[in-house]
Task: structure prediction
Amino acid sequence: MVSLGTKLKAMIVVTLMLLSVQLKAELQPFPYSDIQTQSVSEVPDYRLILSPVTKVNGRLHVSKSRRLNANLVRALYRLHDDFELEEIWGFYQQQLQRQDAEVWFQCHSRDCGVSALWANDIFGDAKLGGLESSQHYGVYHWRSSERSHIVVLYGVVRANKRKYVMVDQLTASVDQVSEGPITKKSDLPERGQTPILIPVSLNASNRLVMTSSARTQVASLSQKFLSMRPERIFFVGHYSSDEGIETEIEKSEQLAQQLRDYVGSTVSGLRIDVHGVGPLSPSHPKASSLKQWVEVFVEN
Result:
């Protein structure tokens, strides 16, 4: 005779399997990460955050969000120590790109707000409390058949250098999910607009030199490239010295080329053109104290 406990366990297993099947386009986990927790549930009131999180008068403040009745698969991963958070972030971005997912909201670093609020108030897992300078958060949406698919990603590096990523995968009926706020390609500067300045340089051996803040800036920019998919990206190198115009132009192109190679080593599928102008182009408004830098703009 089958016990009541055995029947109950069987019913739970079947329920979890049915819920999992509804996530038809489930993202694959990063191969160099270990799963910490995983759950499958029906959530009648999932709060989808679409803005930074802060505290106002001691209380959680979110300027934009929405509520969903959805099926949820939640997984928390710890990244292996030899890998950087940007690598797992790029891995998921490439999968989302293959789904032709829309970006409903994303932020990086301190633009996301207070890490402890994401950890405790939003996701309810203290392991996600980390360095606000290392945060990544994004909400992505696509449709298949009669279902809407939403992926919520939050990644952070803790003070002890451990790296975690929370992956929420939701499915809901199409009539529940209207078009959300989409990050436009125009969020990246186009030709004629003030380009993004990246303060990089060449050392005495003509090798690329980047500060930690520049690496963070480039990582954030790379994720924008993946999600917004501009038709062409331009890296324009600037190099000023007393070595002569021809050498300065040559080295400015080397600077842009090496930065492109660095970006290409972390994310793939980007079309990046490089140019070097030496000291011949007017200075970027933020480059008054710099001798070497790369400017970035796109063509949509």
Q: What stands out?
A: DSSP finds five helices and 14 strands in the chain. The chain has a mean pLDDT of 84. The chain has two domains: 23-176, 185-299. The first helix runs from residue 4 to 22.
